[in-house]
Design brief:
about 240 residues, single chain, 2 domains, 5-stranded antiparallel sheet, Phosphorylase Kinase, domain 1, D-amino Acid Aminotransferase, Chain A, domain 1
Length: about 240
Amino acid sequence: MKESGVKKKKKLYEGKAKIMYETDDEDLLIQEFKNDATAFDGKKKGVIKGKGRINNQVAGRLFTFLESYHIPTHYVKEQTDNVMVIKKLIMIPLEVVVRNIATGSYVKRYSVKEGKPFERPLIEFFLKDDAKHDPLMTKDEILASALATPDELRLLQRYALKINAVLKAFFSRRKITLVDFKLEFGRTKTGKVILGDEISPDTCRLWDAESGEKMDKDRFRHDLGKVEEAYQEVHNRVFKES
């Protein structure tokens, strides 16, 4: 597998936040991060200046950190400021959401007070399907739909909890509270399940540990202002040695 000097070829897919390209290595893809921002199933659209660069670099840093804790990821290398080389995966069509503090859709569903910490991390699964608005799925529904095997489902949960523990400590040292986050996983050509997609202010809720200020995409979602500044501050702290 060539890990450097891969060349971009045909565009495979363009989503709301990223573009995927084939490369001259059949086992590798190029993932290009965009400055485009969307919310509420694409109903709200905009641009966050510098987001592509920040998300690419933050995700690369966090993937590398997770690898040091023996969590396999699709990350290979950063190619340019907003582009990374990744391993080709067949994605499992599930979003694995880990919640440490009640907020967002959980609060709306259960009328829980925002900001209430959970006694232990809560894991939820959502079907990745924009047309159906990414519905919540039970474990039984996942197994009945053959989206994952029982062993894979247990592995997703185990990885999610370990990633949460590692990242909570990482962010805490940088005075950031990891509120909740979304993970996506995929299978390599040999069937191994590894972490894919990204980990960034787009996919995590991050609050300043001292002020409680939101430092993530919620600033865009809810018109809180200073979106670019928040993303850049996350970037600065992620790359701070601690």
